[in-house]
TrEMBL record:
PANTHER family: NADH DEHYDROGENASE [UBIQUINONE] 1 ALPHA SUBCOMPLEX ASSEMBLY FACTOR 3, NUCLEAR PROTEIN E3-3
Pfam families: DUF498 (PF04430)
Protein name stated in the entry: Mth938-like domain-containing protein
Membrane spanning residue stretches: none
């Protein structure tokens, strides 16, 4: 029996590190929303502390079954009331640090799921 990897048309994250991810051959250094079905848009929050309820309301307007929220270099949870727009539309949300979110997104997108990754790409502190 011959094994071959599944082919997928989904955006896939091909690499990541502190303050960046790669989608295909392109290196991205600012926060973004990436969808398995071709969505890709900037997400205006350079740090977790920049988040506001409007960021999650924006995610609720997208056609997704699940949002993978990458909260930066470490796992942090948004206030529950900010997630109400997602809950009202019955869109699931999973929160984890951004590296884990990248891995989880790739697995789910590769399975053909309608998943969106909302990723905060915090820039590393400058060594002085």
């Amino acid at each position: 029996m011959k094994f071959q990897p599944d082919r997928t048309d989904a955006h896939s994250i091909t690499g990541y590190g502190p303050g960046w991810i790669s989608v295909g051959a392109e290196k991205i250094t600012s926060s973004l929303v990436l969808g398995a079905r071709g969505l890709r848009m900037p997400w205006p929050c350079a740090r977790f502390e920049d988040l506001a309820p409007a960021h999650f309301a924006q995610l609720a307007e997208l056609d997704a079954e699940l949002i993978i929220f990458g909260s930066g270099a470490r796992g942090r949870f948004a206030p529950a009331q900010w997630l109400q727009p997602l809950m009202l539309r019955r869109i699931g949300i999973e929160t984890m640090d951004t590296p884990a979110a990248c891995r989880t997104y790739n697995i789910l997108a590769g399975e053909g799921r309608n998943v969106i990754a909302a990723l905060i790409l915090e820039q590393p502190a400058q060594q002085g």
